[in-house]
Amino acid sequence: MAGDLPGPDFWALIRPHTGEVTDVRPTEYRSDLTAAVECETGRFFVKAMRNRPGGRRDQMLRERSINPFVRPIAPALLWAAEDEDWIVLGFEFVRARKAEFHPDSPDLPAVVALLNRIGEMALPEVAHDWRESRWDRFADEGAPSLFRGDALLHADINPSNLLVGSHGMWAVDWAWPTRGAAFIDPAMLVVQLISAGHSAESAEAWTAGCKAWANADPKAIDAFAVATVRMWREVADRWPDGSWTRVIVSAAEAWAAHRGVVVA
């Protein structure tokens, strides 16, 4: 095991669920630890965060709470562990790769189908108070009301969170599910598709296969496009060395231009 992995106390915390750990293969997800773990009781995908107050702990708690309601399309949460230092989730391990979003990708029909499955899921009671508000401060005056709704949103649509397996697709990393307008997940897909090489017209053509998009108010989509540009510009200003942020900013700007909206 790599030397930068957590120390013995961490492995002691999860040992009741894993038994003896024989192999740990870290992955790319944005957590203090995400890894495929081989152990005495099988194989798990383990996600762990330092147990500190704030957004990242809240994300772990939300992901733990929502999992029973999204299991048809998300790997099952099989166990959880927590102490003063760590909060840990142990998921069913699935053999899969991240989806490919480029224009010629054979994954695109399945991506659209998966977003439709997410859009068809009922909002569970646990998510009733998780109102989507992250785009509010970037929106024009009065526009945030257009982002309200009663749909269960994944709200982090990107290729790494949509996994392709031999028997279908999975939506993973339900770290910040929210309640909002159903078009928001498909709108996030549009920006991701443009960043992968699609024209804005092509990206919207693919997203048109999402029922939530087809039923959305165009004014709400326009308002969301404006807020998306402003949000990603702020992210890029905060992390100016991240080339991926510049790509996303350019994609968001291209989308806004395609829709004919002006972003101040």
TrEMBL record:
Top-level taxonomic group: Bacteria
Name of protein: Protein kinase
Taxonomic classification: Bacteria, Bacillati, Actinomycetota, Actinomycetes, Kitasatosporales
